[in-house]
Amino acid sequence: MAELVRIRKKKLQIPISRLRSMLKQIEEKEVDFEEIRKNLDFTASLLEAVYLDGTRQCLESEDDLQQLQSDGVPSEVTDWLASTFTQRIRRPLRRSDEKPKFRSIVHAVQAGIFVERMFKRAYTATMPDQPAAVINCLRDVDRWSFDVFALNSGSSDHALQTLFFELITRYDLNSRFKIRISCLTEFLSALERGYCKYNNPYHNLVHAADVTQTLHCLLLRSGLVHWLTELEVMASLFAAAIHDFEHTGTTNNFHIHTRSEFALIYNDRSVQESHHLSAAFRLLQDDRLNIFINLTREEWMEMRSLVIEMVLATDMSSHLIQVKAMKSSLQQQERIDKPKALSLLLHTADISHPSKPWALHSRWTKALMEEFFRQEYFEDLLNPAIIPSLLEAETGDSGLDSFIT
Ligand SMILES: [Zn+2]
What we know:
Layout lengths: L1 H26 L5 H29 L13 H10 L17 H9 L2 H7 L12 H7 L9 H7 L4 H12 L2 H4 L4 H16 L8 H18 L7 H13 L9 H6 L3 H5 L5 H13 L13 H16 L6 H13 L6 H13 L7 H24 L19 H4 L1
Helix pairs in contact: 1-2, 6-7, 7-8, 8-10, 8-11, 8-12, 11-12, 11-18, 12-16, 15-16, 16-18, 17-18
Bound molecules: zinc ion (ZN).
C-alpha cells in the first residue's frame, strides 16, 4: 500500500508543480494563456491516467468470492457464498457496440450543476395535503440515511406511494410522460395492495420504497443521473418500485421444490423475479392504471425492455456474474452497457441496508430473519425430505439468496 502511495505521489509531482507555477503566474498577473492551456491539458490527462490506473489496481486486488479461502471463514460459509453469488448458466453479453465509454461517466459525474437545477424545487412538490411528519421525512430524501420507516409511519403505511409520487414529481417525469395524477395515484394504490398480499415482514411496500429511495440516492450522489435520459430515470425508478411486487415471502428454491404454480409458469428460472415483472406489467393493461399510456411505441418498448432487464438482475444468483462483467468492462476501458450498469445499480440498492445507519440495518435484519423463519415453518409443515432446509449450509443452490433481495 505504501508503495502504491509512493508511486502515485511520484506520478503526480509534475502536474502539482505545473499547477503551482500557474498559480504563481496568476498571482503575479503574468498570465501566459497558451502555457496555462497546455499545462491544464497535460495535468488533466495525467490525473485521468492515474485515476484509471488506481481503479484498475483496486479491482485487481479484490478477491473473487468464488476463490474465497481463509482460515477464519468456516467452509459452510464459503460454500454458501459461492452457491449464493454464482449461477451455472451464463447470460450472454449484449449490445456491446452501444456502450458509452467509462470516461464519459467520469465526465458526467463532474457535471454537478444538474442536481441543483433539479432539486431547487420545494419539498412540498409532493401531494399537497401531506402531514408535517411526511414533509419532514422527505427533506432527507436525497440522503443515504433516509428513514423509510419514519416515512411509512408518517404516511399511515403508504411509504411506497408517497415516495414514488415525490420522486416522479421532483424529476418532473409526470410532465415529460404526460402522466395524469389520478392515474398515478390509482396505479400506486394497486401496487401497494400487491405488496400487502402475503403480509411479508421484509418483502413488503416499505422495502420497495427503501430500494426506490436508495436507487435515487445512488443516481444522484454518483452523478450517474447526468448520464441518463429521462426515460432511463423513469424506468429505473419504476423498476425499483415494482421489483418485489407480490413477493410470496419465500425463495425461488421453495417454489421450485414445492412445484408451485409460479415455478411451473416460469420453468424454475428466476421464478419470483419473473412474477414481479409479469404481475406489475399486467396492472398496466388496465387503462385506468396505465401510467405509460402516453408513451410512444418506441418509448414503451425501450422502457419495458429496460425494466425487465433490471428486475431480472435482482435474482441473487446473478450477483457474481454482474460484478465480474462490470469489473471486466472497467479494466478493459470498454464502453459501459447502460442496461447492465442500471441493473447493477438496482441490485446494489436492493442489498444496501447493511451499509445504512445501524438503527435501519438492525430493523431490516430482524424483519428478514422473521421472514426466513416463517419459511422454515412452512417447510416443516410440508415434506422435509422434498425441501432442503435453509438452515443446512449446502454446497448446491441454497435458498438464503432470495431472502436478501
Ligand atoms: Zn428486494
